């Protein structure tokens, strides 16, 4: 017993000696932390925006989760008109909260739907710019999901279901700022020289979710208005990386104050729907939405405003080929239902990954991203295999690729296809030409974005 105890204490000591580097509260030190390896393996996360904004759930050529800000701060006419036409004059934004009923919110059902996408993690809005918390926060007495609306701990129920039923990592989004919080407005008026909102509200809430729910991802939103020194972002991150319950596993992003995005922190989100089209040197993420205009649910979205599975796959493949992860957003309804259009897109992506996952999971970027002869072909690499992901099926009986240099033992196959290997020949200008045999449509391995595996290339 004693001996075992000593042994395990030793192991703990030596482990923390190796990985126990302490980070200082400055960007040079914070930025030196490697991104935990799990994050780069899976490539796909699902983002979920849910809150009081899910009640009005409208956006007029803009996102629905900014409703309060557009209506009361920025005074956008479309939002003012909407309120004048449909609500009594004294109706306040807070009045929406009692209709945030979530009566069909079933965390197990969400877990199944989210998992069906083949993703590796989710990121859920614990609190957006409206300040309403989806957990029973001790710092938000009457503006949280236990006090008004669902009367439930939405974050807690979702965490239990995700961790209990799936292998997905559980991440939380947290908005630093709150557009209309009186302390925030006062600090803003004082040109960020006072920090009452930070010390009394923003940071205590952030520490609370990390300590209570131990998220694998802390996805901060705050590349807006105030500098990172106002938020004490490096102070919080030093605690997160050194002493928090998730210090070794947690992944963060870059939205920790004006100008921090695309420069500091963990994974770079840069701007919304970031899709640079070129290989990036720092790990990055494309945070994008299935509803082209909005993160929160939008009742007034029509079908054409939802991305098709072909568009989603084109974005995903390009993102992964250039070294990024994709974080794809769905906005559930105020009653807790994930609309069938979102459910279908998630399931389609999962179906595609069940055939083509080898070309995505655990891959690294290759030296070439998209091909010069057929620019809609994007490459990834794993060990010595190069994957050529073809967004459009060839219209002729050959596919010409400039990047691959064949060797005498190069083999070409179609992922998920059981009809054998494909013939190819070298092109006089370099590259290869793959012969595409006629394939019955019901023998095709998938319906969108096909993957050729190229083994034993000279330049793999
Ligand atoms: C989650 O999805 C994966 C496929 O991506 C599947 O293998 C697994 O069984 C699913 N888990 C649950 C609990 O449905
Ligand atoms: C809120 O405070 C109570 C009492 O101090 C404590 O039991 C609870 O864990 C706290 N909740 C959170 C989310 O920190
Ligand atoms: C910033 O955070 C660190 C770590 O929690 C703390 O020690 C420091 O006092 C904070 N600084 C300010 C100005 O709030
Ligand atoms: C940082 O975010 C702001 C606001 O979203 C955006 O305007 C800016 O382009 C971003 N910076 C970079 C380098 O992407
Ligand atoms: C792909 O490659 C072509 C030619 O090399 C290039 O012009 C194009 O901008 C690239 N990107 C996309 C998104 O097609």
Automatic annotation (TrEMBL):
Coiled coil: none annotated. Residues 20-358 form the Glycoside hydrolase family 29 N-terminal domain. It is an enzyme of class 3 (hydrolase). One of its GO terms (cellular component) is lysosome. Residues 1-20 form the signal peptide. It holds the Pfam family Alpha_L_fucos. GO terms for biological process: fucose metabolic process; glycoside catabolic process. Keywords: Glycoprotein, Glycosidase, Hydrolase, Signal. One of its GO terms (molecular function) is alpha-L-fucosidase activity. Its EC number is 3.2.1.51. Belongs to the glycosyl hydrolase 29 family. This is alpha-L-fucosidase. The lineage of its organism: Eukaryota, Metazoa, Spiralia, Lophotrochozoa, Mollusca.
């Amino acid at each position: 017993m004693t001996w075992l105890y000593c042994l395990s204490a030793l192991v703990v000591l030596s482990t923390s000696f190796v990985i126990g580097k302490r980070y200082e509260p400055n960007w040079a030190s914070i930025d030196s932390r490697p991104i935990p390896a799990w994050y780069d393996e899976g490539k796909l996360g699902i983002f979920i925006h849910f809150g009081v904004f899910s009640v009005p759930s409208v956006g007029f050529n803009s996102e629905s989760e900014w409703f309060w800000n557009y209506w009361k701060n920025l005074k956008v006419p479309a939002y003012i008109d909407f309120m004048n036409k449909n609500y009594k004059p004294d109706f306040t934004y807070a009045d929406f909260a009692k209709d945030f009923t979530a009566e069909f919110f079933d965390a197990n059902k969400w877990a199944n739907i989210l998992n069906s996408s083949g993703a590796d993690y989710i990121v859920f809005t614990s609190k957006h710019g409206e300040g309403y918390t989806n957990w029973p926060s001790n710092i938000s007495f009457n503006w949280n999901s236990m006090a008004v609306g669902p009367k439930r701990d939405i974050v807690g129920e979702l965490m239990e279901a995700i961790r209990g039923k799936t292998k997905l990592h559980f991440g939380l989004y947290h908005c630093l700022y709150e557009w209309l919080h009186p302390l925030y407005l006062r600090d803003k008026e004082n040109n960020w020289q006072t920090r009452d909102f930070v010390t009394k509200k923003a940071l205590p809430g952030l520490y609370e979710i990390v300590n209570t729910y131990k998220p694998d991802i802390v996805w901060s939103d705050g590349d807006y208005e105030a500098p990172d020194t106002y938020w004490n972002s490096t102070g919080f991150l030093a605690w997160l990386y050194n002493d928090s319950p998730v210090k070794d596993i947690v992944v963060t992003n870059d939205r920790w104050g004006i100008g921090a995005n695309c420069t500091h922190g963990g994974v770079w989100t840069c701007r919304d729907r970031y899709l640079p089209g070129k290989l990036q040197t720092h790990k990055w993420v494309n945070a994008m939405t299935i509803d082209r205009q909005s993160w929160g649910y939008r009742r007034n979205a029509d079908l054409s405003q939802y991305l098709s599975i072909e568009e989603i796959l084109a974005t995903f493949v390009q993102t992964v080929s250039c070294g990024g992860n994709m974080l794809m957003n769905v906005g559930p309804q105020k009653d807790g239902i994930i609309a069938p259009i979102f459910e279908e897109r998630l399931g389609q992506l999962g179906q595609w990954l069940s055939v083509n996952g080898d070309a995505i999971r655990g891959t690294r970027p290759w030296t070439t991203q998209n091909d010069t002869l057929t620019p809609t072909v994007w490459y990834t690499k794993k060990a010595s295999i190069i994957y050529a992901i073809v967004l459009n099926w060839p219209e002729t009986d050959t596919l010409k690729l400039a990047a691959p240099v064949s060797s005498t033992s190069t083999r070409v196959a179609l992922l998920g296809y059981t009809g054998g290997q494909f013939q190819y020949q070298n092109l006089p200008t370099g590259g290869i030409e793959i012969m595409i045999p006629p394939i019955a449509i019901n023998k095709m391995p998938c319906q969108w974005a096909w993957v050729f595996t190229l083994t034993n290339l000279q330049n793999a």
